[in-house]
Amino acid sequence: MGAATLPVASLTARADTFPSRPITMIVPFAAGGPTDVLARIVAEYMRRSLGHPVVIENVTGASGTVAGLRASRAAPDGYTITIGHWGTHCLNGAIYQLQYDVRAFEPVALIASGPQLVIGRPDLPAQNLKELIAWLKANGDTATSGTAGPGSGAHVAGVFFQQLTATGFSFVPYRGAGPALNDLMAGHIDIMFDQASNSLAQVRSGTVKAYAVTASTRLASAPEIPTVDEAGLPGLYIAYWHGIWAPKGTPGEIVSTLSAAVMAALAEPNVHQRFAELGQEIPPSDKQVPAALRSHQAAEIEKWWPIVRSANIKAE
Ligand code: MLT
Fold first, then answer.
1. Among 81, 62, 104, 42, which Cα is nearest to 255's?
2. Cα of 223 from ligand 1 centre, angstroms
3. Where are the domains of the chain?
4. What does the alpha-carbon distance between residue 299 and residue 273 come to, in Å, rounded to a whole number?
5. Which residues of the chain have pLDDT under 70?
6. How confident is the model at residue 14, as a pLDDT?
7. Domain 22-113+239-310 carries which CATH code?
8. Among 58, 64, 83, 179, which residue's CB has the most CB atoms within a 10 Å radius?
9. Which of 82, 85, 88, 174 to mutate to test the pocket of ligand 1 (most atoms within 8 A of CB)?
10. pTM, to two decimals
11. Is any ligand 1 atom within 6 A of the Cβ of residue 146?
């Protein structure tokens, strides 16, 4: 008998002793990228409350949809959970024809939110966002923007940027923002719309150029980077939120145990410090809880699906 068909009594009994072995957290993108980094920080601290390791498994491909299918089909017993974000648990539902529903997971916790940076390779001649737009207009035939996959947040933000600036450039998909950033630093691609958490360290060390932050306020951890409003592209706001989910049907007691472990991790001063350095804002605890993640995801879907559909963004 599959776990999904176990009688409620069996699941309740399991919930009493949960967890009794390591938990797998699926990360839908490449190791070393922004989602992976957040997952590893939270997993390390979840272990302290759960008493068992939370093991990261990177399941990459197609902007997180390979991982999404896998997570949706995992046994709903709490031993497989997934981290995801604005792209995987919102955009993908509007862009891909999926064999699962991005809304059909049990929310565990909303963990953090942060903006993107508009960044360029280190030797790009443009010194500010206006010069970047002019450079892209002059070099549209050859210019390239790295993404974390077709239809990913980096791709969607890039399409909005193209529409706002009347620029054209090609998108180059990777299995995550980590490998895309490596190619940007090596000069193989020109620009990225990248989660700040991925590229801030390289901006600080001068190995990539930062042109703007996609928010109405500057980042406390990088106040030298202008906002899109200040840099000349008002309103291109992208808030890249991350959350953790369990497969649909995971018993409530198990979700509560997992949620408490994530929230305990987020309450750790060291986690606060590491997230702040990555430009991540941890929501107040009443906005971390499963019900808050469920409403946040629903509101984001209501906001973004019509925008993405009317922009005709395709996963190709
Ligand atoms: C990653 O970890 O590679 C990213 O979260 C991908 C993305 O920006 O969507």
1. 81
2. 23
3. 22-113+239-310, 115-231
4. 28
5. 1-14, 316
6. 67
7. 3.40.190.150
8. 64
9. 85
10. 0.93
11. no
